[in-house]
Amino acid sequence: MGGRRGLSAESGIVGVVIVAIAGPASAEDRAGVGIPGGRCSRVGAVIDSRSAVTRGSEEDTVLGATCPLRRVSGCADTSARIAGKKVSSAGAGCAKPWSRSMSVRVKICGITRADDAFAAVEAGADAIGFIYYEPSPRNVPVRVAADIIRQLPPFIAKVGVFVNAAEEVVRRAVGECGIDTLQFHGDETPEFCRRFSPLKTYKAFRLENLESLSALSRYPTDAWLLDSFVAGKPGGTGAKFNWDLAIESKKHGRPIILAGGLTPENVADAVRRVWPFAVDVSSGVESSPGGKDHTKLRRVIAAAKAPSETVSG
User: Fold this and answer.
1) Same domain, 19 and 168
2) Which domain holds residue 116?
3) Measured by CB atoms within 10 angstroms of the end CB, which terminus of the chain is less buried, N or C?
4) Which among 311, 289, 285, 306 is positioned nearest to 107, based on CA atoms?
5) Based on the domain organization, do 1 and 28 belong to the same domain?
6) Catalytic residue flag (residue 187)
7) 193 belongs to the catalytic site
8) Are both 53 and 158 inside the same structural domain?
């Protein structure tokens, strides 16, 4: 970690901020920051020789977040001992809500033009979504998406959105465009979603009622995207999602990405009501299908992040 070996409370170093941890580290390195079995400590955490970790987020590697203490699936013992104190994190299936001091991530989806992608990133977007579905008015050709993605800065998630696509279509987009996250928005099976490991995957669900929630647990993807149900439409309708269903979905223990009719006017209310891991916005910031209004982009991203910034401040 940062070229130092054996960093520990006994070293007398106070207030060290973890910026990044690359691995695998040595056993000495892992023990020095209280990482049992080589698990990562929290990026942004402060190691103080007089106290335990005082700050940091527990997010998984979703929408650009990195280095989890809490791995959402397959988590065993994530206890750590720092400065003589035990620090624990909830394991899989605990349905622990994301900390309200953690900034909500924002994904801008349906990007078809480079200037719109750059405007979204400049405004603070954490992820950019590209739709590979020809019937959609926001469909983007592979060569166009590849050109845009090549120009994006690091630490921005590049999400490919697919609707019942063949495996070879998905793999071609991954290989030619450099997308690092897959969002499946159709009738894909859990087995199909697992084929693309180690890429991150989201499964989208168009939820109509409480009974719709029963499908969630069948998909151990990195996150669940919740969208409005509109008969015959796989998504992108702009219809407002039932936020009560999103609140109920959080009990199932996966990061929730809230979509469906989000706009600059209502996204802050949605965040305060649901407190999702992330929000996904497309039609709510458009001047026309596939074309983004840059003023709306800035407003929706600022509004989505404002509630968490108020809490953390």
Assistant:
1) no
2) 105-312
3) C
4) 285
5) yes
6) no
7) no
8) no
Decide which of 69, 94, 119 is a domain's last residue: 94
Same domain, 50 and 135: no
Single out the catalytic residue among 29, 116, 222, 227. 227
Per-residue confidence in pLDDT tens, the chain, 313 aa: 444 333 333 434 344 444 444 554 444 444 444 433 333 444 444 433 333 333 334 344 456 554 332 333 333 333 333 233 333 333 334 444 555 667 899 999 999 999 999 999 999 999 999 999 999 999 999 999 999 999 999 999 999 999 999 999 999 999 999 999 999 999 999 999 999 999 999 999 988 788 888 889 999 999 999 987 555 555 555 566 788 889 998 988 899 999 988 999 999 999 999 999 999 999 999 999 889 999 999 999 999 999 866 655 5
Q: Which of 109, 126, 180, 280 is catalytic?
A: 109
* C-alpha to C-alpha distances, 197 to 57, 80, 200, nearest whole angstrom: 24, 28, 7
Domain total in the chain: 2
